[in-house]
Amino acid sequence: MARGDEGLTLIEMMVTLAIIAIISGIAVLGIGSANRGATVQAEAQRLAGRLRLAADEVLVTRRSLALAADRDSYGFVSRDAATGRWAPDKVGLLGERHRAPAAVQYVMPSTAPIALEPDGLGEPFVVVVSGRKDSWTVTYDGLNVVAAPAPGAS
């Protein structure tokens, strides 16, 4: 019998099944992913993560940063050495302004930039991330950041 007439080897069969399993797994994980990022919880956790990154950046570099936000977007700013004014930070993810999905808004304690100080003595604050059905709070105490469902939220 010639080599080509024998059919598939066990190795070929296993490789084929592995490829099918990987492609199926990717397809299953992708189902519904278009809606995942738009939830209030995801937005609150994203803000908390960026706030943690900013707090770490402040501790490591010993320079002040501030959270600058309005109802539908936020970003981090640093003081420009030449002018003394707040300007978008030069650290990529922090300097980029994040826009909330249409159904989500941020309720800030102040319209002015909220400073994060290297010594951890900055003013603690709470940002409420709200949507149509629920709300989350992002609490910063000068060192730690916590995202949690808002009290009384369903």
Folded structure, characterized:
The chain is an alpha+beta fold and 154 residues long. The protein is 33% helix and 26% strand. It has two domains: 10-34; 36-149, 3-Layer(bab) Sandwich (minor pseudopilin epsh fold), CATH 3.55.40. Strands 1, 2, 3, 4 and 6 form a five-stranded antiparallel beta sheet that branches. It is elongated. The mean pLDDT is 84.
What's the quaternary structure here?
A: single chain
Gross CATH architecture of the largest domain: 3-Layer(bab) Sandwich
Q: Give the radius of gyration.
A: 23 Å
Number of H- or I-type helical stretches: 4
Order of helices and strands: HHHEEEHEEEEEE
**By CATH's scheme, which homologous superfamily of the largest domain applies?**
minor pseudopilin epsh domain
Distance between the termini: 71 Å
Helix content class: 25-40%
Largest sheet report: 5 strands, antiparallel
Strand content: 25-35%
Describe the structure in brief.
The chain has 154 residues and is of the alpha+beta class. Helix content is 33%, strand content 26%.
Write the layout of secondary structure elements.
Blueprint: H1 10-30, H2 33-36, H3 40-61, E1 65-69, E2 73-79, E3 86-88, H4 92-95, E4 98-99, E5 105-107, E6 114-116, E7 125-130, E8 135-140, E9 145-149
Antiparallel strand pairs: 1-2, 1-6, 2-3, 2-4, 5-7, 7-8, 8-9
